[in-house]
Amino acid sequence: MNSLTTSATSAFRGLSLALALSLAVPGIAHAQGLFDPVVKVNGTAVTRYELDQRTKLLRLLRAPADPARLARQQLIEDRLKAEAADAQGITVDEEQIRAGMENFAAQGKLKADQMIALLERGGVSEETFAAFIRSGLIWREVTQTRFGAQVKVSEADLARARAAITDGTGVRVLLSEIIIPFQGRGEQQVMAKAREIADLTSTSAFSAQARQFSATPTRDAGGHLPWQPVTKLPPVLRPLVLGLAPGEVTDPLPLDGAVALFQLRDIEETDVAQPSYSAIEYAAYYIPGGRTQAALSRAAQIDAQTDTCDDLYGIAYGQPPSVLERGTKAPGEIPNDIAISLSRLDPGEVSYDVTRANGQTLVLLMMCGRSETGADAPLVATEGGESADGEPAAQDDTAQLSQQIAARRLESFANGYLERLKSEARIIEY
User: Fold this and answer.
1) pTM, entire model
2) How far apart are CA 212 and CA 343, in angstroms?
3) Strand 427-429 with 37-41, pairing
4) CATH classification code of 167-270
5) Which residues partner with 181 through β-bridges?
6) pLDDT of 381-418, one tens digit each?
7) CA-based torsion, 237, 351, 60, 2: positive or negative
8) Same fold: 167-270 with 277-372
């Protein structure tokens, strides 16, 4: 929506060193075919090594798709983006790449060096992360240079957007869900099963899989969720769901210690106003034991004893402060597994299908409330707990809405341009 400390020169040196070592020790690289091409894009190769590295990177970043398939697609697009940048004389330097690394790492509240170290522990080189960031920076410059002047937001555009937020027709969806924990089965086995489920087109077959494998409260109902506005879905899920036809299933969506799949059963447009949300307030109470019967029983007991988020303070009384967390976050800041669980809840309702600490801690989530986006909606609280001054906040909302409209238009131009580049390219897959 998404660690480059070295430039293309550094990456080349790293690969050259690997090649040199493979020549010094006969058969290592060649036996494995690490540097054999898996794809050629207008004559430029994507190697098996690059594909393996990008796949590992996407898996570690928990990309919302099959990592191997997405990695191949991204690397093809990276070659096309680089060609477009060369044609326009666009480059990025080491300083820009480092800044891009820091910005990317900051999304996970890390420094670039911390993220690089974590990735390297997962088998992803710094050069691979650098290439990933570099491609994004280059494409941003390409699209801004090529289409930036065409993207203008008028007062009429802002008025229409506000009307769509508050008064317009909406879209609601009827979904089924499956969430399978890795614990007890192993990540590789679970992901293999998830890829099988993703190929299903029968709602009854999907429901059967939900009853057998899912760890959600909807398991006994075959994973069936009620009708819900698309605006209540987590940001990561909306584009995936809206890209489906009825009966189709999303690609496996990696979560923290689990994988999720969603099947679209039906979709409809309504005349009922369906607001979007700028902030979600929720509470998380941590119960030791993971998905053990004792922990689940404790969660059910707390559910029966509480009606509001304030009630959880009484449950947590006398325990360490870390046992209960409560806060307000923008939808995009909430971890995907928590966001998916919260999307099912109304204020005062709880769920307990999320775990932490490698499955050893059960998380009881309670929805406290949602703040609607729009002129009459409550303002998002600041960290100090007070609302910002009305007039500046309104100005900020207008600027933010304008930026969102411009970004969507620029993205539309960029996607169309990329599709044209693909259609004109000579792509050979091995």
Assistant:
1) 0.59
2) 23
3) antiparallel
4) 3.10.50.40
5) 258
6) 333 333 333 334 444 567 777 887 788 778 878 888 88
7) positive
8) yes
